[in-house]
Amino acid sequence: MNIGIIGTGNRATAYVKVYLSNICEDVRIKALADIDGEKLKRFGKEYFKLDEMPDLYTDYNELLDDESIEAVIICTPDTTHREIAIAALKKGKHVLLEKPFATTIEDCISLYNESKKYNKVFRLGFVLRYAPLYSKVKEIVSRGDLGKLITIEAKETLGYLHGGSFFRRWHRFKKNNGGFLNAKCCHDMDLLNWIADEEPVNVSAFGNRTYFNPREDAGINCNDCKIKNSCRYAFKEEQRSLFSSEKNLCVFNSDKDIVDHEVLNIEYESGLTASFTVTTLSAEANRTMIIFGTEATLYADFAGGIIKVKYIHPNDEIIYKPDTRLEGHGGGDRGICKDFIDSIRSGKYDGKSDALAGLLSTAVALGGEISMERKEVVNIRELIKGAKI
User: Of 41, 143, 160, 253, which has the fewest Cβ atoms less than 10 A away?
Assistant: First the structure.
């Protein structure tokens, strides 16, 4: 099977590494596309032998015109997702689209409705669904071990360097991604929807930028800043890589309009509730989740690779330790790459991370951004009423 990859940034790197590891038999990366021709050439030389070099295009439409390519992986900037995904579907390609689904509600509805017109596999890059730890959490919940679900608490804490990088990259503007919650956390929204196994109905959120604000003692760029030797966010040349959009820009004095922390609440159809907290400033990078049920409580620690289930009666405790040693979101990158190819070969068009999952997760994230701005509860059904679900 020939596949093409559009966009050659960080996520493209992850997908290329997985497919070059031969996780799927008879899969060939036939072509790469990126508007930056020099970057495209360097990317090709970095990962492919000369006699195995894919076709290189600076116009993704030329890649889509190759009839030998059955499937494409789209790893371009967020605002381009709708346009390129629809173009790929119209050319008869199966699509794996990197998150987020889109950056506006209008584009989400348009892309969802368009995706249903074609008999093609459409997957979102919700890699956490495929990570062994969260797959085990889903299995425990679906088995009924916790009883009826009451409420879910989830947190994502970004290590300070990772969190700070959002304020010197293109992600720092809402116009580029729909807001921080959509850009960074839409697959956390998807996890909550997936585990709840219900349609989200209402969402509310609060957030602010409390720390990454202008400082008089700092400059605009790190190179000529008088505090660069003491600032933990000072950009170092070794941080720059071929596949990074991180720049030599002050995380405090850069222009920006995204928040640095946010809390969000979701109400589901049955009355089940969920809360999510994200912060860009933490001593530890991790995701944690607590699920409260009528019979037991589940505690999941992604970084620690541990799931603990404590039962109410009898007062027993079971510890699970899924294999999280695999690289790439705890094995999630490998899982989604294999699922994408397997789904194409089996003709399984609906699946773990299909277009509906993309629509609902992004609706929650964008609904949260609207709620945060307006200080009001947002009804998800009203938000996506144009979608033909």
Answer: 143
* pTM of the shown model: 0.92
Boundaries of every domain in the chain? 2-126+333-353, 129-324+359-384
Q: Is 389 helix (H, G, I), strand (E, B) or coil?
A: coil
Residue written as tokens 């989400």? 108
Kindly list the distances between the CA atom of residue 119 and the CA atoms of 60, 94, 97, 112, in Å, as whole numbers in the listed order: 22, 9, 16, 13
Each residue's pLDDT tens digit, 1-55 = 999 999 998 899 999 999 988 888 899 999 999 999 999 999 999 999 888 899 9
Cβ–Cβ < 8 Å for 111, 82? yes
Count the helix, strand and coil residues of the chain and give each as a percent rounded to the nearest 5: 35, 25, 40
Closest CA to 257 of 183, 174, 177, 366: 174
Question: β-strands 273-282, 149-159: how paired?
Answer: parallel
User: Which positions ≥6 away from 341 have C-beta within 8 Å?
Assistant: 1, 24, 27, 71
In CATH, 2-126+333-353 is 3.40.50.720: yes
Architecture of domain 129-324+359-384: 2-Layer Sandwich (3.30)
- Please tell me the distance from the alpha carbon of residue 67 to that of residue 92, in angstroms, as a whole number: 9
CB 277: neighbour CB atoms within 10 A?
17
Strands 69-74 and 2-6: parallel
Distance in angstroms (rounded) separating the CA atoms of residues 318 and 301? 14
**Mean pLDDT, each 10-residue run in order, the chain (389 residues):** 94 91 89 96 92 95 98 97 98 97 97 95 94 95 98 97 91 95 95 97 98 95 90 77 62 96 98 98 96 98 95 93 71 89 87 91 97 97 92
Q: Where are the alpha helices (DSSP H) in the chain?
A: 10-20, 37-47, 60-64, 81-90, 105-115, 132-142, 160-165, 174-177, 180-196, 332-346, 355-374, 380-383
Q: How far is CA 63 from the centre of its chain?
A: 24
- 104 three-state secondary structure: coil
Domains 2-126+333-353 and 129-324+359-384 share a fold: no
Pairing relation of β-strands 55-57 and 28-33? parallel
How are beta strands 286-293 and 296-301 bridged, if at all? antiparallel
CB 68 within 8 A of CB 90: no
